[in-house]
Amino acid sequence: MTILDEIAEKTRERVAEAKRTCPDPSQAAGGVPVLRRRDIPGGVSTMEPFAFEKALRAPGLSFICEVKKASPSKGLIAPYFPYTEIAQDYDNAGASCISCLTEPYWFKGSNRYLTEIRRVTDIPILRKDFTVDEYMIREAKAIGADAVLLICSILDPVQLRDFRQLADSLGLSAIFEAHNAEEIRMAADAGARIIGVNNRNLKDFTVDTRHAGELRNLVPEGTIFISESGVKGRDDIRSAEAMRADAVLVGETLMRARNKGRRLMELSGRPVKVKICGLMSDNDIKLVNELKPDYAGFVFANTRHRITAEKAAALKAKLDPGIKAVGVFVDEDENVVIDLLRRGIIDLAQLHGHETDDVAGRIRSATGKRVIKAVVMKDASSAEVRFPSADFMLFDAGRGSGRTFNWNYLNDRLPERPFFLAGGLSPDNVADAVRKVRPFAVDVSSGVEDGETGKSYEKMKAFIENARSVHD
């Protein structure tokens, strides 16, 4: 008997007990609708059918990032396990989907972990468990999952087909996990739209990422293909791309990383994101719409770039919807910030004053929108300032100072959350900053201006190109 057989047998016992204590699996979350972050203001769940597979069909290699406390092969991986923060870091760093372990014995998982993660992120979630009964599929829906795992080696062909059909009826995606050619054939015969090949040998727990590549051509055309396990660095990502994988599932490498968001960004090799701040005019919007930074900043604080809510609303209406609007505030009434977020005038709030973590938390809870908390870098200890309720930190030399700070402060005491870098950045130094600090995003305002004439097309273009030119 393999460890997989042992886990499957224990799971059957677990399901029998669950049926006894909660006969209706739709009540697994206490009968309360499980809400996503974006549903918080209205209080109505809008879980999109088949969101998981839709996310994996996006262009490029998708990353399914695992929230996992332990495993049979490695034992306890994460003694400190702030699972909702981990999920948020994955989300903020660009994960396509999250895989949450709910198996309680070998993986130390819990249904509660998934439900609480569902409340803090919009991206699709796989309920990573050992599905052996229809009850578990209905339970997965109730606790907030978008997908379930069907492991071919512990299910027969009839179960695979029936479980897939049930998942379809609930709007859940089904990932068929295979280890060999026969199991891929079983998955295809059962109507699989997603097949993942596990690179781990379940007899001796060795991992060989070439295994998925050897089986890749057996997967039917049009079926989403996932390479599971064994990703440690960029070479493994290149290998997955070479075998035409649609996605990789990454677990232990991320779970052992101190800064999980940063590690994901390193693995993905995606360019740094760019924020152009201090937009004030229709011409500024015209320029950013053409150049397409990731974020556009509207300043509501008392500086030379200040604009009114009415002006910001007019500019936001003309902003490319692919560019997120960030409102910059300094010690503003939190209700004003909440109102601007709820009205859609801004998409994120950047708090650049003396706001506490409680303020950041209340803004997030009231709106379901992301919050950036700025920290002025006085010395290396400033990098250790913590705002757990903020999605991102922003490290700056000072509000609008136009100066850089010693970037080694961040490398010496690497922040645990994805962060923005600001302060004295320009087209001339941004590439060096990205190479040295590896931020999630870079933020510039005066560094792309021509004196009193405002934003410069040439400087913004050079800044964006230079920032995004840094790879690997």
Describe this structure in words.
- The protein has 472 residues and is of the alpha/beta class.
- Helix content is 36%, strand content 17%.
- The strands form three sheets. It has an eight-stranded parallel barrel, surrounded by five helices. It has an eight-stranded parallel beta barrel with strand order 11-12-13-14-15-16-17-18, surrounded by four helices. A two-stranded antiparallel ribbon has the order 2-3.
- The longest helix has 19 residues.
- The two termini are 43 Å apart.
- The mean pLDDT is 91.
Distance between the amino and carboxyl termini: 43 Å
Q: What is the helix content?
A: 25-40%
Cα shape: elongated
Counting DSSP E segments of at least 2 residues, the number of strands comes to 18
Strand order of the largest sheet: 1-4-5-6-7-8-9-10
Identify low-pLDDT runs.
Answer: none
Q: How many H/I helical runs?
A: 18
Overall mean pLDDT score?
91
Structural class from helices and strands? alpha/beta
What percent strand? 15-25%
Radius of gyration: 23 Å
